Amino acid sequence: MNTVVITVIGSQQDAEGDDNRIELITVGRHYEKNGVHYITYQETQLSGMEGTTTLLKVYSDRITLVRMGSVQQKQEFRLGEKTCGTYITPYGTMEMAAVTNKLDFSYLGAGGSMHIEYELEIDGHWQSKNELIVNIQEEQKSGC
Hints:
10 strands; mainly beta
């Protein structure tokens, strides 16, 4: 398991055309097992999900996002498909669906990146067009 620096950039455009963007830089973990990449990190107050651990499972044909803690979520992203998930908060539960329009992932040597573009539905109603970019770099060890 490697310690990595993870940069997460999320953007969202709603029906009125208003854009919302968030950028998070944090330390996390990366490992690979049986051809699946696992990337995990802690959410912060900035994302509104403090107390939550995010796990990204990257397969050759899909990416699964799992959140555990103050927020619970499982959402799968498959190119060209609509996938259903649930989002559980202290304030209630929402049924979510994502239609994935772009799904790219590469991991070479000490770093990798993923790029997901999807449209989000909540409780059966179109909510927003979203983009998620995650860059992963092995943490640099300082030497004396």
